[in-house]
Design goal:
By secondary structure, the chain is mostly helical. Helix content is about 65%, strand content about 0%. α1 packs across α3, α6 packs antiparallel against α9 and α8 runs antiparallel to α9.
Length: about 200
């Protein structure tokens, strides 16, 4: 289900969970009608309305709350792929390891995991590429502090809020695009190397 939800939808769901705590109304400020907090996590922790800063706005620790949203979205995808890969592991190798006295931990790390390592690499490469281009989650949460800027949100900030004139904006966009490319290339090279090595092993 989380995978079927858009990034913006997931961000809105978790914004309500990570929002300011308590169930009592805030005091009216400059005539603005008091609003009730809807931060489920802070309410469960027993925080009062005075601690009304959203958890994702916290310095340093706020990054982990943003990461959790992405983990929540992508965990189902990874589980489906890994489950299919594990079902493809030959049962003969598993039975042979059990006969040799392998415990469940050894059975997973020494028998099953090496046989699905290519799947792990593919999923890892896909998720890293997906994370590098994330824009919706921090943008929907307005978590655009300097310590939370991703490359995509940095491009948006440069276009709308940073005071740089002339062709500097275009140069910055190009620099960020090059950074994205340089970050993705090592993963692509490693994936290609793994595929070629497996093909050579099959040929021999």
């Amino acid at each position: 289900m989380p995978l079927a939800i858009s990034f913006v939808g997931a961000a809105v769901i978790w914004r309500n969970i990570f929002a300011g705590g308590g169930i009592e109304p805030q005091e009216a400020i400059n005539g603005v009608t008091p609003s009730y907090q809807i931060g489920l996590l802070k309410a469960l922790l027993g925080h009062t309305p005075e601690y009304n800063e959203p958890l994702y706005n916290l310095k340093f620790w706020g990054n982990f709350y943003l990461m959790w949203i992405m983990v929540w979205i992508k965990t189902g995808f990874a589980m489906v792929i890994f489950s299919a890969a594990l079902r493809g592991v030959p049962q003969e190798t598993v039975e042979a390891a059990i006969i040799d006295g392998a415990n469940p931990r050894q059975l997973f790390f020494r028998v099953k995991l090496p046989q699905i390592f290519s799947t792990v690499v593919v999923v890892w490469t896909y998720l890293v590429t997906d994370v590098l281009k994330v824009f919706d989650i921090p943008y929907a949460l307005s978590a655009n502090d300097d310590d939370k800027l991703l490359l995509a949100t940095m491009m948006e900030a440069a276009m709308n809020t940073w005071s740089i004139g002339g062709n500097n904006v275009d140069n910055l966009f190009a620099a960020i695009a090059v950074m994205l490319m340089l970050t993705v290339i090592p993963h692509m090279i490693f994936l290609g190397w793994r595929i070629r090595r497996e093909q050579k092993q099959l040929e021999h």
